[in-house]
Amino acid sequence: MKGPLFYAKILLFGEYGIIKDSKGLAIPFNAYRGALKSSKTLSEKAQQSNQNLLKFYMYLSALETDLVQFDLDRLKLDIEQGMYFDSSIPQGYGVGSSGALVASIYDQYAKNKITVLENLTRDKLLQLKEVFSLMESFFHGKSSGLDPLNSYLSLPILINSKTHIEPAGIPSQKEGKGAVFLLDSQIVGETEPMVNIFMNKMKNEGFRKMLNEEFVLHTDACIDDFLHGNVTSLFGNIKKLSKVVLTNFKPMIPVAFHKVWEQGLLSNDYYLKLCGSGGGGYILGFTEDFDKAKATLKDYKLELVYRF
């Protein structure tokens, strides 16, 4: 057996803010992908994946919900016969490795599943997001369901609020100088501890005020600029957002990158922001001149995501 491919995702804007109901914008990232496969002889990596699928099966078996039913007998049989998730998506890097796995399991084993081909009303999108949130909570403790949704639909998704999400049309890429890129921190991040730090910070009134009055404001402005192709305004807002994140989300930024972050703000060669929950993995970069950013960041591994 071989299941269809599901892609990685990048949350361009909205990390942490979407937990508190601000806007978010996620896009599929086709450079990394995964699919369910089966083999009688498993490599060490495939064996590990097979064991994880068994744990996931047990979690799904114990789920008490009317939202979704799975063909659990078939899932168990396939796992026993050597099914694993063959994926190039790096784990702990903020690009949705567990999201692609969740999407593939839903696609293969959910009964009466909502398909990508039908008319995706807002209600159906919200139902999918809720199902994926339940499923992905196995991996992260608490999940918005957005990563699997993005991977499943393979469309850019605009999150207006928890109850209002829609597919988004993003401007087609241009052969310009500007770019969105990934900067590899070469550290594996873990979502749950980062989310716990954030939730503890949320107990502080000053932090909540900053989140509403600065972080959310700049995030929403960035999304509007990006969707409307207002590149000049976008970079002004990204710089503000990058500053706010450096000041208020330091625990989520690997220590070795505090200076690199500051250097971008001072030189205006690039601006950095969190990619996912932070703590490691990828850091997201925006630049008006990708060649210049590459020269400045020559000691780091960069990956192109989108061109302006």
TrEMBL record:
Keyword Transferase: yes
Signal peptide from the UniProt entry: none
Key words, A-Z: Kinase, Transferase
InterPro entries in alphabetical order: GHMP_kinase_C_sf, Ribosomal_Su5_D2-typ_SF, Ribsml_uS5_D2-typ_fold_subgr
Protein's name in the database: Mevalonate kinase
A molecular-function term among this protein's GO annotations: kinase activity
Record carries keyword Kinase: yes
